[in-house]
Amino acid sequence: MTSDSVRLARSEFVSKDPGARVLITGGVHGDEFEPMQAIRELIARFEQDSLQLLRGSLILVPVVNEMAFLRGHRAADDGKDLARTCPGRDDGSVTERTAAALSQLIEESDYYIDLHTGGTEFSVFPLAGYTLHPDQNVLDKQRAMAIAFNLPIVWGTAGNLDGRSLSVARDANVPAIYTEYLGGAPCSDDGIAAYVEGCVNVLMHLYMLKGESPASRVSAIVEDSRTGSGHMQVCHPSPITGYFHPQVSLGDSIEAGQSLGWVSSILGDNVIDVPADRDGIVLVLRTFPRVRKGESVGVVLDGADEYQKEIK
Ligand SMILES: [Zn+2]
User: Fold this and answer.
1) Directed axis angle between helix 33-47 and helix 189-205, to 10°?
2) May I ask the CATH architecture of the domain 11-224?
3) Rounded CA gap, 90 and 52, in Å?
């Protein structure tokens, strides 16, 4: 460790009985607030003994990317996206050093949950996601964790995206999931509650907490192995820089060709439609009206209908 190494602010709870080591993180992006508050609530509940670990240990990091949080932005002032910078380096920029500290914690864990939202610019339909890991044993554990978390959508995507917290977990064969819940800058009380409950659900699933699993709220399990699936920021790029007016709502079922919204130039003399490129449900929608050319205005999830039938 060099003197420039970042140490992530964390709380750790250890049972007297041995068991797995679980890591839960929020604030990999500095403008995603529900995860930060949910993890603080978990810390308080463990400190007050209203939650007690049966075995193993739990590390809770409410704000991984403190420098980005303090700026009120997705990224710190070196401009690097932490979720594209892992595993980082100890002698690099602030985001690279934060990535190195996070990667080390992930590699030392047996299970990992990374809580996200759409940040200040997007809103995301609540989902638990994972990589389609080449090791069947890891994949089965990830899928079971995502189902146990108990958000409406369970989404397995291509395992070949690098730079992310989940790619560090993938390379270390640590079963890992990430979650998304709305976004857009306000901090949703429902999102905080769903995240606290989801983490508790996964810890019960791992036999680390006592309790009854709630009835399933999962409405669709989609596994999409197409290259690049899960890379939300490249979907439906805006044709121009301007002002985005959505024409759909999050969670709507829509058809290919239907308008996701329009982008207007500054004077409104150039208005261009952004049609959906597939049938499906609106999984992600831009909520921050300013959009730059090439930036995503939304993501449409296809395949949810056929899997919905399968899990009934
Ligand atoms: Zn994020």
Assistant:
1) 60
2) 3-Layer(aba) Sandwich (3.40)
3) 35
Domain ranges of the chain: 11-224, 233-302
Contact call for residues 39 and 62 (beta carbons, < 8 A): yes
Nearest-CA neighbor of 300 among 254, 259, 261, 231?
254
130 CA to centre of ligand 1 in angstroms:
14
How many A from CA of 183 to the centre of ligand 1? 10
95 alpha carbon to ligand 1 midpoint, in Å?
14
The pLDDT tens digits along the chain (312 residues) read 455 789 999 999 999 999 999 999 999 999 999 999 999 999 999 999 999 999 999 999 999 999 999 999 999 999 999 999 999 999 999 999 999 999 999 999 999 999 999 999 999 999 999 999 999 999 999 999 999 999 999 999 988 889 999 999 999 999 999 999 999 988 999 999 999 999 999 999 999 999 999 999 999 999 988 887 778 878 999 999 999 999 999 999 999 999 999 999 999 999 999 999 999 999 999 999 999 999 999 999 998 765 554 443
pTM, full prediction: 0.95
Instruction: Return the CATH class of domain 233-302.
Output: mainly beta
